Amino acid sequence: MSKTSKPQLNRNWIDRRAIEIVSRLQERGYTTYLVGGCVRDLLAGFNPKDYDIATSALPEEVRKCVPKSYVIGKRFRLVLVKRGPDQFEVATFRRDPQPEERDESEHPLADNIFGTPEEDANRRDFTINGLFYDPINDEILDFVEGLHDIKLATLRMIGDPRVRLKEDPIRILRGLRLASKLRFRIEPELRCAMHDLAPEICNSVLPRKREEFLKILKLKEPGRVLVEAFDLRILEYCCPSLDQLFKDKNKKEVFLNYLDRIRDWVDDPHSPTELFSVMVVAFSVASGLVSWNEPIRQGTLLADENLKSFMKDQLGMFISEMTEICHAIEIASRLNDVDSFKKRGIRRQSAFVRQHGFILAMKMAELEHLIEPHARKFWRSLT
Question: What is the pTM of this model?
Answer without folding.
Answer: 0.89
